[in-house]
Automatic annotation (TrEMBL):
Signal peptide per UniProt: none
Chief location bin: membrane
Keywords: Cell membrane, Membrane, Protein transport, Transmembrane, Transmembrane helix, Transport
Protein name per Swiss-Prot or TrEMBL: Biopolymer transporter ExbD
Amino acid sequence: MARKRIREDEEAAIDITPMMDIVFIMLIFFIVTTSFVKEAGIDVNKPEATQATKKPSATIFIAIRANGEVWMDKRPVDVERVAANIERLRAESPTDTIIIQADKEAKHGIVMEVMDQIKVADPSLVITVAGENN
């Protein structure tokens, strides 16, 4: 009789180790495949757009402040160094779209210099200037 009780107790146990392995593997998969968007690192007062359309997500953001500061990858960048920084960022995460977030008080000349530097880095890049509705 003692043997019957021992067998019943052993058969009732459920091993959840394989299920936990699958859950952890799925967790690692989702963490690795998640893409993160890099913001320029500062808030700008963007002008409002009347005919805004949604653009595909980009991994490179350039912010231009009202005082003419250019920010990329959460740090200030000299206008002449924008092309080199774009090449470095594209090597890390390839993209064909760059979004410029310019303050509505920013000088037009600075925005054009940044756009010229983007074209120097790669003429095939798509440049999007973000407004309030983008």
